[in-house]
Specification:
It is a single chain. This protein has 19 helices and six strands. The chain is mostly helical. The strands form three sheets. Strands 1-3 form a two-stranded antiparallel ribbon. Strands 2-4 form a two-stranded antiparallel sheet. The protein has a two-stranded antiparallel ribbon with strand order 5-6.
Length: 541
Amino acid sequence: TTEIYTLSLHDALPIFLILIVLIGLSSCAFTDFGDINTDPNNPEKVEPDFLFATSISESLNLYGGHMNRVIFFNYTHQYSGFQGSWQRYNYSDSENNSYWRSAYVYCMQPVNKIVENFKDNNAYHNRVLIARIWKAYIISQTVAFYGPIPVSKALNGEPNIPYDSEEGIHDFLFQELKECAENLDNKRDKYQKEYDFVYQGDIDKWKKFANSLRLRLALRIKNADPAKAAAEAQAVLSDENATINRESESATARWGTTSTTWSPLYDRVVYNEKANLATLPVLCESMVYHTKPYNDPRLTVYAQPATQGPFKGEYFGQNISYGGQPNGFPVEENPHRGLTQKDYSPIGSRFLQPDAEWVFISYAEVALLKSEAALYGWKTSKSAEQYYYEGIDASFAKYDLSGYAGTYKNTPGVKWGTASDIAGREKEFQDFARICTSAIEEGDYFRQIVMQHWLAIPMQCGDAWELLRRTQVLEFQPMFASYEGTTLYMPSRLPYPSDEYQANNTEVLKAVTTLGEGGDYLFTTLSWGLPPVKNKNLPNE
């Protein structure tokens, strides 16, 4: 699979040139798509295989590249970026414009063109349905990041594009994924293996992806619409064989091994390490106190021991305030003061390969989603406990750690329904300031599931951000940054980019009014999210 993917990415380089000619480098994702296929010097229709490969490649680079490192590392406390605007819980408008444009122009538009150009051609039946599934995935990510976004009228060349509500978008996604999964047909066409970087043309796996994504979305909206969430989840789980049930069915892709196709993280952290020494991303402290006291061997995969500094040879993570601390905490007790990025644990070597794997949705995640569904009393074939252990087993097996899974599952706090054994070792479960803990109380099944879900999706920080916002049960330090003059908790959404205010002003302003009193702000809670839980150990919180 690796050889096929590396070759296909290398061979697919002309795809990006085709796409640039096809759609142009427009600054607005909604208003500049008029008659983009009318250039007589270019083909009227580009074959869907090329467009599909382009969309997957661009999605890989968006969700696994700059956006992941710059924004979501610090938002989700798996890894730590370094002191830029986003990392400080502020934002960069130029970067935000780029992310928005990438989502619509480079990721979504290629598969949108497949649907437009081939929907009435029976020879492309399955390829159109899979394009719709992939477009639904991109929409599901974008609405999770921003809230209301243009969907129903987007990409059609109109000058003013209305924003759809979160509820309307999720309803559309449920129906779209259901319809596509039901109509995929093994006896009909498929994408060529070298252009389907996720499933190499396997129709059954695309069905499982669509259903598993639908399950993820059902759990997402549980706070906003419990009845709808239960109905959608139970519809999916009525046939669990049609969901991802083994690692070989996980939706993954790999970067290539050439300078034009390799992983953005490899490019920054390994290939250009010397140029980026002061800003290298590293392990986050939160990951350490959620794994080390439980003797979780996945820590050895997710990170490497520090190679220098006072914690050389240990797994030591950076706190997201970069040495900042709560008022009243003794400066001399802060282990982060005066350290450089090289004094922390590097990211695990598995994730720093040029052709590293990226996961869109995994077997472990799907098992833990099922565990959560069962915990709510929704109809499932197994108990919440069975799915919980299945998710842990799947995560350990992915990293060739199955031999350690039995011991780990019997560890207090990990074993279903048990409390963490913190007697005489409370500090091991805490952050450096001792205001947060990973300790589990007896019978707190929900927190156990969420903790294992978070641990099972390293690097999928956009997905982890969604999980944390809708659950709010894991304890992480807020941002302590003196220039903001306040304690900042994890952001709840991304603001709309300035390009939208310039090109689609009337409609974006309408969308802002639907966000409530918080408005277009990083800390405005979306309809399905929960507000941050203030830390009870901080004064005035």
